[in-house]
Amino acid sequence: MPVEKKGSKGSSPKVYQYFKIDGDKTTKLKKNCSRCGKGVAMSEHKDRNTCGKCGLTEFKQ
Predict the structure, then answer these.
(1) Which of 44, 40, 45, 39 is nearest to 54 (CA)?
(2) Is residue 45 part of a domain?
(3) Would 3 be classed as within a structural domain?
């Protein structure tokens, strides 16, 4: 049985925060990273979108 490290409980992202479900339709709430591809969502800030994996930053206009 693997031992869980202290502080790692709840540190993983919650997948349900990235999607909106309306009946049988699902829509993505966050943009995919153009460099990393599918499966890597970019974080949204006030003036930019940032990828946490590769560091790509796209500024909003």
Answers:
(1) 40
(2) yes
(3) no
Q: Report the amino acid identity of residue 40.
A: V
pLDDT tens, position by position, 14-24: 777 788 889 99
| Domain membership of residue 21 as a residue range | 15-59
- Residue 25 in any domain: the answer is yes
pLDDT given for residue 16 in this prediction: 78
Number of structural domains the chain divides into: 1
Per-position b or e across 20-46, b if 16+ CB within 10 A of its CB: eeeeeeeeeeeeebeeeeeebbbeeee
| Cβ count within 10 A of residue 13 | 9
pTM above 0.90, yes or no: no
- Confirm if 52 and 31 have CB atoms less than 8 A apart: no
